[in-house]
Amino acid sequence: MTPSPTFDHHDTIRSAYPGLSAGIYLNIGTYGIMPRPALEQYLALVEDFETYGLFSTAGVGQKAEATREVLAALLGCGPAQIAFTGNATDGTNLVLAGLAWQPGDEVITTDEEHEAINHPLLYLQKSRGIRMRRVQVSPDPELMRARVEAVVSPRTRLLAFSHVTCETGTRLPVAELCAWARERHLLSLVDGAQSLGAIRTDVTALGCDFFTGNGHKWLCGPKGTGLFYASPETLGQLSPAHVGAGSLEKADVATDLAELWPSGRRFEFGTRATTLYGGLGYSLAWLGSLGWEAIERYVAALSDALKARILDRPYLRLLTPRPFDHAAGLTTFVMDSWDAGEVSRELWRRGHIRVRVIPHYNGIRISTAHFNNPADLDTLMATLDSLATR
């Protein structure tokens, strides 16, 4: 049964996204789109700052700091624990490049990680001689604990995994895995690219040492915005691979003094695109006006409706866990006897529907965002039905 929108005036919400007139956008999990009110404010900020520079009275720096405070509130931490980055991959690299590795050190990860984790780990394996131990994903805490327990060794140093996997959209039992890591004095790195903005994401409750995320997906911010969190207890274990103006709280070339900021600011240096973070703040404010809990309920209702429809069709095979507390806003399925790339092309050709292909499983991934509606699902399923009759 398709859900009724849980937002009041959902048509007004959709009207804030004029790009939806080009088709059905079911891929916020790759690129979000900015709501028009936030985009207009962001573009005005860019125009003002790029036109007037130091004559500007727009308060670009203050707006960026206000964004830091909103992100910290969303993550359940202090603003000092947040560093601005360009994307989630930046955060992964801050951890992997910031730890002192020895050949033979090991990292436990999963078989459904994005390139944001896989590629830096592959490079670290080649350049520093570390070893990766991969485990199959599951939303079941006991099963995941058993799987990581089976591969842990005296050389294990880090547990690196997604909050919500980018392939099947499985929500991993992060709190339990991070607790397991702490019990063994291991560090934990969580990729929150597919959770932040779709489901409640509290780093204190999760208990992770490091958390990285994007502003351009579910948060609908400008491309080139990301964030990195480090717990107060573990921040000092990272040695920044790059520093510059802004990284050091105290510096004196006469006395060779160089003291990093005791906060996430140690990772921010040089002239930066501060207007990007002002723009992210505008998107956060607009989404916040809808209510973060209301957004999560709506995303849950749409994804539940989509899964029910997939399960009703014998030619489709659902890969995402059915319960929403085991998943989030991503739903992945396989269409029997079809190549996923061809399905994606046909969905665009027949219905102007944008989706994501998951080559690992020959699957199609759907993102159910706050701006999507039941009619989007109607068109998606009708188009799939028409393909199945070929």
What does this structure look like?
By secondary structure, the chain is an alpha/beta fold. Helix content is 39%, strand content 17%. It is built from twelve helices and 15 strands. The chain has helices at residues 10-15, 36-52, 60-75, 88-98, 115-128, 141-151, 174-183, 203-206, 274-290, 292-311, 340-351, 374-388; strands spanning 24-25, 82-85, 106-110, 131-135, 156-162, 187-191, 210-214, 226-230, 248-252, 257-260, 316-318, 330-335, 353-354, 356-358, 363-367. The chain has a seven-stranded mixed beta sheet with strand order 2-8-7-6-5-3-4, sandwiched between helices. It starts with 9 loop residues before the first helix and ends with a helix. The mean pLDDT is 96.
Q: Let me know the largest β-sheet.
A: 7 strands, mixed
Residue-averaged pLDDT: 96
Distance between the termini: 26 Å
Count of DSSP H/I helices: 12
Which sequence of SSEs, written as H and E, runs from N to C? HEHHEHEHEHEHEHEEEEHHEEHEEEH
What is Rg?
22 Å
Q: Are there runs of 5+ residues with pLDDT below 50, and where? A: none
Helix content: 25-40%
Number of DSSP E strands: 15
Spatial sequence of strands, sheet with the most strands = 2-8-7-6-5-3-4
The structural class is: alpha/beta
Shape field: globular
Strand content: 15-25%
Outline:
This protein has 390 residues and is an alpha/beta fold. Helices cover 39% and strands 17% of the residues.
Task: Give a topology summary.
Layout: H1 10-15, E1 24-25, H2 36-52, H3 60-75, E2 82-85, H4 88-98, E3 106-110, H5 115-128, E4 131-135, H6 141-151, E5 156-162, H7 174-183, E6 187-191, H8 203-206, E7 210-214, E8 226-230, E9 248-252, E10 257-260, H9 274-290, H10 292-311, E11 316-318, E12 330-335, H11 340-351, E13 353-354, E14 356-358, E15 363-367, H12 374-388
Parallel strand pairs: 1-13, 3-4, 3-5, 5-6, 6-7
Antiparallel strand pairs: 2-8, 7-8, 9-10, 11-12, 12-15, 14-15
Helix pairs in contact: 2-9, 3-9, 4-5, 11-12
